[in-house]
Amino acid sequence: MKKIAIVGSVGLPAKYGGWETLVDHLTAHLSTSFDFTVYCCAEKYPEKLATYNGAKLVYINLDANGMQSIIYDLWSMLKAIRYADTIVVLGVSGCVFMPVLKLISRKKFVINIDGLEWRRAKWSGFAKWFLKLSESAAVRYADQVVTDNKAIQDYVKTQYGRDSALIAYGGDHAVRPQRDDAILAKYELDRVKYAFKVCRIEPENNIDMIIEAFASAPTMDLVIVGNWDNSEYGKQLRQKYAGIAHLHLLDPIYDHTILNQLRAACQVYVHGHSAGGTNPSLVEAMSLGLPVLAYGCIFNRETTNQQAYFFDTSAELTELLNSLTEAKLTLLGHQMKQLADQLYTWNRISSGYADIF
């Protein structure tokens, strides 16, 4: 049985983000065909399981995120090349070392380069330069490059002249729960129609644009769940719109039962992300059959096959909100669900990875 090492995620069990959800489903779907080892961030797991989903878990005493992620990934790869046939690397943080790793090892490296991380506005000039350098090394030295969005696949071909495997994320783990009015009533949402969004409160997610549109179009409430107190951007937005009753700017909700209730009961899912390729939260919303209003960047257009309703400004979003009808929303939700069932199932995603392992 081929030995596969997975590097770059926080680890298993999945409870942090998109990478971890991907690893969870890959190991669950493919553990009878491959011998998996998953590298995990020790500090995130007080209870250190030896195995999960049939995969062996190895703990690294470094942070999987931030500056330490570079050494976290490198150390994991150095351990993995001793025994693994294929090393799957999620993200490019540690890939600046790929030229050296390929000199000392003939193992197969499969690298998912994520969503052009160096373009994100939150990084300093040096960080952008470093991430671009790491991306270049990843693409040039990987045995197989994975991209999660057609726009990124096209970028890799144009920028580096390399083909890549297009493999996105599954969303069919998101299941619509039975409606619980007690949970909705706690947030004063049991008797209103509302739009929903959960994300990091960052400028690149166009939070200000979305709130401005809903503030001027009180036909529908808006619920945004996020880390408002983590930045001046978030604090200022919440303070600015604090007095508007139909805007619900909620702190992070870590109880998935509550979060799933709020998401499943919404009339519209608003997706403002402008960076990062195919976003797992968008794929999940589509899998739930939620009508999607999305910022009109190329990544979101590719993910939704141009079938969502798009906006580029707050004025355009306001116009969209004022034009919505029950018939339009029903049709749009059906189209999103149909597309997700065709493209974004974990069976399909796992099969794509199995083909390149």
Descriptors for this entry?
single chain; about 350 residues; alpha/beta; Rossmann fold; 2 domains; 6-stranded parallel beta sheet; about 15% strand; globular; DUF1972
Number of domains: 2
CATH-level-2 architecture of the largest domain = 3-Layer(aba) Sandwich
**What is the radius of gyration computed over CA atoms, rounded to a whole number of angstroms?**
21 Å
Structural class: alpha/beta
Q: Provide the residue-averaged pLDDT.
A: 94
Strand order of the largest sheet: 3-4-2-1-5-6-7-8
Largest sheet: 8 strands, mixed
CATH superfamily of the largest domain: Glycogen Phosphorylase B
Shape annotation: globular
CATH structural class of the largest domain: Alpha Beta
Q: How many helix segments?
A: 14
As a percent range, the share of helical residues equals 40-55%
**Which parts are unreliable, with pLDDT below 50 for 5 consecutive residues or more?**
none
CATH fold name of the largest domain, please? Rossmann fold
Pfam family, one: DUF1972
Protein name: DUF1972 domain-containing protein
Domain DUF1972: 1-172
Domain Glycosyl transferase family: 191-326
